[in-house]
Amino acid sequence: MADLQDDIPTTTEVGRDDGLPDGDGAAPASLDPAYPPSAQQAGELLERAHALLAAHPVADGYSGLPWALRHLPWYDLELGEAAIDTDVPRLREGHVAALFWSLHLPEEPSGERAVTTTLEQLDLVRMVVDSHPEGLRLARTAGQVIDAHNCGRVAVVPGPAPAAALDDSLGLLRILHTLGLRVLTLADTAWAGTSGLTRFGEEVVREMNRLGVLADVSGATPDTVERTIALSKTPVLCSRSAARALRPHPANLPDELLAALGRAKGLCMVPLTAEQTGPTVPDVADHLDHIRDVAGPDCVGLSGTYDSGAVHPRDLADASRYPHLIAELLRRGWSETELSLLTWGNVQRVLRSADFVARATQLRREASTAKITELDAS
């Protein structure tokens, strides 16, 4: 079996000695006189973190698990699977109650191939959930996420998917939504590219609002981010974005966009990857601190980005490690209210808002039949 799994990225952690830059030169949290805490303090903080997460579990904004599972000849997520970063035992240990399963691929196809691969990914998500009924449950709405948690299951929310999966068709958007899609990434298409949203792109956002599909603008151009925030009647997501002021990664957001996202009550979900946030738990916490301060505590969330091929910070190697991050935030003085919003409350708010707007919009707006050739004709 090992030979068949050579293509699966193994769990990787890094430390401060990996050569990655520290960002803008600010003193890292590890230089804080109170860092590192003593063994007794660390144990007490971790115990408090587990207690808090038992009441306010994690809603993880991005998991690459569907693609990783395609490469495994056999797996049992309920028993546990060492070849990947995520399984039911580790989700329970990390107090993860909801997981957004990405439909992105390592090398995004285009055209008909993008549609086919996205449909295949959605089909795989359904099969995986159906074959693990004691641990997983498919969910679309905020209510279904809560129901799954109350039944002791991890809620699986399909998405984000690449915008190329629409193949410039609003009909395909509706089909994907019917099959369970809940989040769409608006980037790298003719209607959501370097020049921002075109007229057809704006119609895509309106139809997403009508359906209850959330807009993800991680990796989108600033013009696309700004126009989507201004146009969307539901909160906008950044499924994998941290603070560019601390780490100049292209998917990270500058402070002006973070502030705009905060004013619109959107949600920036910070990825637990060394490339975007840094090689240690304090580095990740620095980004969370910064986004909380710039956008507000209502607008920050978590995105494990596990099973995506990314390198993770030390002590955050897999989905079981969330208590270590929460312990660090407790050490920094985050309140229980702020932490409950970070882990669970903000995602629930965004999902509830999308559900409400969709119901209201469907009463006054018919399904759009707009064509890109009509709206974007030069």
Quick rundown:
Pfam families: Peptidase_M19. The chain is an alpha/beta fold and 378 residues long. Helices cover 43% and strands 12% of the residues.
Topology readout:
Layout (H helix, E strand, L loop, with lengths): L12 E2 L24 H17 L2 E6 L1 H6 L17 H6 L2 E6 L9 H20 L5 E3 L3 H9 L3 E5 L2 E2 L7 H9 L4 E3 L6 E2 L2 E2 L1 H13 L2 E3 L5 H10 L5 E2 L16 H9 L3 E5 L2 H4 L3 H15 L4 E4 L8 E2 L8 H10 L4 H29 L7 H4 L3
Parallel strand pairs: 1-14, 2-3, 3-5, 4-5, 6-7, 7-10, 11-12, 12-13
Antiparallel strand pairs: 8-9
Helix pairs in contact: 1-12, 6-7, 7-13, 11-12
Pfam family, one: Peptidase_M19
InterPro entries: Metal_Hydrolase (IPR032466), Pept_M19 (IPR008257)
Protein name: Membrane dipeptidase (Peptidase family M19)
Main features:
378 residues, alpha/beta, TIM Barrel, four-stranded parallel beta sheet, three-stranded parallel beta sheet, 12% strand, disordered N terminus, Metal_Hydrolase, Membrane dipeptidase (Peptidase family M19), Pept_M19
Structure report:
This protein is an alpha/beta fold and 378 residues long. It has a single domain, classed as TIM Barrel, CATH 3.20.20. Helix content is 43%, strand content 12%. The protein has helices at residues 39-55, 65-70, 88-93, 111-130, 142-150, 170-178, 199-211, 222-231, 255-263, 274-277, 281-295, 322-331, 336-364, 372-375; strands at residues 13-14, 58-63, 96-101, 136-138, 154-158, 161-162, 183-185, 192-193, 196-197, 214-216, 237-238, 267-271, 300-303, 312-313. The strands form five sheets. The chain has a four-stranded parallel beta sheet with strand order 2-3-5-4, with helices on both faces. Strand 6 (161-162), helix 6 (170-178) and strand 7 (183-185) form a beta-alpha-beta unit. Helix 7 (199-211) crosses helix 13 (336-364). The N and C termini lie far apart (55 Å). Mean pLDDT is 91; it is low at 1-11 and 16-27.
